Amino acid sequence: MNFRSSTLGLAVLLLAAVTPHVLLGADALPAASRLPVIPLAQVESYRAPGLDLAALAREDLDRLQQGLPYRFAETQEVSLTPDAAGNWEELPSGRSLWRLRIHSPDVLSLNLGFTRFWMPHGARLLVYAASGEGSVQAYDESDNADHGELWTPVLITEEVVVELEVDAALRWQVELELTSIGRGYRFFGEDPADKSGSCNIDVICSDGDDWRDEIGTVAVYYFGGRFICTGFMINNTAEDGTPYFMTAYHCNVRGSIPPSVIVYWNYESPSCGQQGGGSLDDNQTGSTLVAEYATSDVTLLELDDLPDPAFNVKYAGWDRSTRVPANAVCIHHPSTDEKSISFENDPLSVTTYRESASPGDGTHLQVLDWDLGTTEGGSSGSPLFDQNHHVVGQLHGGGAACGNNLPDWYGRFHISWAGGGTSDSRLSDWLDPLGTGAETLETIDPLISGFRVTPSEGFESSGVQGGPFEPAEMVYTLTNTGDTVVGFTASVTDSWVSVAPGSGSVPIGGTAEVTVGFSPSVENISVGRHQGGLNIVNTELGAGTTARPVTLNVFANIPSITGVVPNPFGSGAYTITEIRYTLGGVATVRARIHNIRGGMVKDLGSMAGVAGENRFIWDGTGPGGARMAAGAYVFILEALGREEKTSIMLIH
Q1: What 8-state DSSP symbol labels residue 139?
Q2: How far apart are CA 546 and CA 499, in angstroms?
Q3: Which domains does the chain have, with CATH numbers?
Q4: Residues with a known catalytic role
Q5: Fewest C-beta in 10 Å: which of 37, 370, 503, 544?
């Protein structure tokens, strides 16, 4: 059941994305604005009890420590029907009008749950703020669902009006019972001071430019009138637009809960760094559970309807293979506020949930620490994308927050694919309905006709300063999926990147190729990691830019220690540390651990290092495997006739 909110003064209210129905003129407005009915002040009111905010705060702290879903509201269970509450009036037109006011003092928002909902032909239900401010929510027979329920998005108000208008002769066919009143005390409508941590990166920022399609797959949602998580739309091999929505098992969307799911698309800051000001207008209600698997913390829902085309929702691609990402991106709603993006530039590891030893039971991917951004409560269920823009997991939990370098764990898509071996516990039945056996699938925009660009991953190359760099180029294929010839342009964002051709056309049912490589100026580029970009534009649409990142890793032709993670180590789950270093080319490398007096306590041996990043592991032991005393130690790396050193702190 989809709708876009409208102001009370609008003449047209658009509902239902797939087969739109429109309430025109007076039908789009509450009865009091167009008919001689009793004043709203005389309509019966149900007053929900106030909230114990101190008790809720204590409970929320305990919930956070347990890793439970973020709560933004407390629900009041009721049983309110048109036969037992509110006021009926007979209208001159032969229709009947019923209204009921719902009031809860000192709340930030209200939402309603009808566990019995059925509208006969011509009937319509409105929910709106008694003050006349904000949006009108409108429903009719097209919103009747097999599960027989209706749950409403929040209204930022302390008092709402529920209004039913129906032909008097069909009044007996109405099924309507309000059983839940969600009283919001945080998130929607909260003060800016309570927003998510300042290190979060709004998706509107330039950091998100290479991830626009993936950003369009992610949404915040609430369920049961109380709890909030993040989820995302996901593609299937039929690419038929089935609205599969993936999230985390621990969010507990099961049993009687799926019909209460309310999804908010495009809840994003309008300007970079604002971390606020997002719109809640793009939303839809209702879902069905299709599969879940606790081991990898995955839940797959099917939304009741397709998203409204105006929401511009994308469907995320995925990778079900055993490949471990070289880096990763998470798109999420921290503390369920406006959408953010976080970056991990280092390789992930395969582990057990909340453990660091690899591979552990292999059910999760660990992000050791976020390099840019973080995650928070409410980010649960958000997608983890690998360097190829494929979903490889969804957020289960962890300790990451602004101001720390703690890890996060993601339920592994590879494990969820086969799940528990049954259709209701695995993804494969739903995301590969054609039985193709595909290991990967690309993100799609169901609204764009024209060409698709493959592969979806960016171009990444490495080498020593001055070159050569391998690979030297990458070819992208443009496939025309529409019924007209499509023109395109191709451009790059940095002078050290080259592309050819710069423009062209793709025939109907045909392909064209674009090659990205390096310009002569790349010989002068400095040591480090450089990010560029390729933009391919569908000129027939005048939009539809496809962006692919271009990454160049330039190494000095000497060994260089780049980090020790974690440091200090040895306490709790961090029983090992990883010393990371880079080489400009293949070389034999030897590593030793010394105490601060210069004595060697462990020879880590020699290995064949490769161009780029390498690593040694130290478990804190010395000769014979004995655990070393807590204190400072020195790691010494020898390669290419040079010696590099760094300090390590061992704690117990």
Answers
A1: E
A2: 14
A3: 30-190 (no CATH), 193-431 (2.40.10.10), 448-555 (2.60.40.10), 560-650 (2.60.40.4070)
A4: 250, 297, 380
A5: 503
